[in-house]
Amino acid sequence: MDGQDKHWENMNLGTPDHDFMEELKKQLHSIISQASQQAGLDVTDAGDAESSGSDFMTQFSGRKTMRNPPAPVLYEYALRMERGTNIVNGGALVALSGSKTGRSPKDKRIVDEATTRDEIWWGPVNIKLTERSFLINRERAVDYLNTRPLLFIIDGYAGWDPKYRIKVRVVCERAYHALFMTNMLIRPTREQLKEFGEPDYTI
Asked: Are 41 and 73 in contact (CB under 8 A)?
């Protein structure tokens, strides 16, 4: 049993009037520093191209970024900063996503370009988007992210086999989005993060 497990073991849940949520939040506070140190948590200026390892990141001028925080830190930020966020009795984080509570398949767009044009099943779900329209939307997304006081950056691998896996970088404004992608992607080790370099795919 590691140090974090002992924190959960010591929770006083036997008292009938015990407030589970408050106790859980208290425990998160107590382990956040330890988790941050273990993960080598880094909060930097996103405009620093050397530390970000990607030219794409230089577009977020002056933004503060939290790079590859561990799950306890993301829980902490979500609980403190996002209205309606809670922890259920099984330990999972619950968040409000606003009016969009599910997939929006009819809003899916794929850039129509020469190298993949003949490989895609175009139709009512895979809808064509011109390269110019993509660049306009991408610029709008970057402009929006530049209005946010803090951005989360998650680096990970898609694909278990090292021969076929790709490196993915996710840039987002909400802690629960970062937590979701932390679960979806394979987390690199600390050594792998040092050599991560340029991602193959940026979200």
From this structure: yes
pTM of the model: 0.69
DSSP run (H or E) holding 202: strand 201-202
**Dist. CA 203–CA 193, nearest whole Å:** 18
Nearest to 25 by CA among 76, 94, 73, 84: 76
127-129 and 109-111 as β-strands: parallel, antiparallel, unpaired? Answer: parallel
Q: Could you tell me which residues are beta bridge partners of residue 186? A: 157
Maximum pairwise Cα distance, the chain: 65
Residue of 91, 125, 92 lying closest to 110 (CA atoms): 125
In what order do the strands lie in the sheet containing 150-158?
A: 42-45, 64-67, 150-158, 166-172, 201-202
Helical ranges in the chain per DSSP H: 3-9, 20-39, 49-52, 71-81, 131-145, 175-184, 190-194
Spatial neighbors of 102 by CB under 8 A, at least 6 apart, are none
- Higher pLDDT pick, 162 / 24: 162
Q: Summarize pLDDT for 152-186 with one digit per residue, the tens.
A: 999 999 999 999 999 999 999 999 999 999 999 99
Calpha distance 158→170 (Å, rounded): 12
Rg (CA), the chain: 20
